């Protein structure tokens, strides 16, 4: 059974930082692309960043230069380092790989 478990969300002030983690089990993690998505209240889920099995990365324009996606295949874990956070980054953040989704972790950026 494949499981993706996100963690690391919370409340942070504008300009602050958070690091999200996505721990995978039941899957040969290093074979697959991993992505982060987010969904703000009243909005559709949107793509944030992707990292391929080979380590290539891509970012949405709204987060490029502020967010960094990475992976540690030895730990079956992907990360999303989020810096210079803005109130517009407030959302539930989801990890995705293959056809599987995590349960999400809430990120709230507010003073």
Helix/strand/pairing category: mainly beta
Return residue spans where pLDDT drops below 50 for at least 5 consecutive residues: none
What would you call the shape? globular
Counted beta strands: 11
Rounded mean pLDDT score: 96
Question: Roughly how many Å apart are the termini?
Answer: 40 Å
Query: What percent strand?
Result: over 45%
User: Rg from C-alpha positions?
Assistant: 13 Å
Q: Count of helices?
A: 0
Your description of this structure?
- By secondary structure, this protein is mainly beta.
- Helices cover 0% and strands 51% of the residues.
- Strands 2, 4, 5, 6, 9, 10 and 11 form a 7-stranded mixed beta sheet that branches.
- The N and C termini lie far apart (40 Å).
- The mean pLDDT is 96.
List the SSEs and their pairings.
Elements: E1 3-7, E2 10-12, E3 18-25, E4 34-39, E5 46-51, E6 57-59, E7 67-72, E8 77-82, E9 91-97, E10 100-101, E11 105-109
Parallel strand pairs: 2-11
Antiparallel strand pairs: 1-3, 3-8, 4-5, 4-9, 5-6, 7-8, 9-10, 9-11
Key terms for this structure?
mainly beta; 111 residues
Put the structure in a nutshell:
With 111 residues, the chain is mostly beta strands.
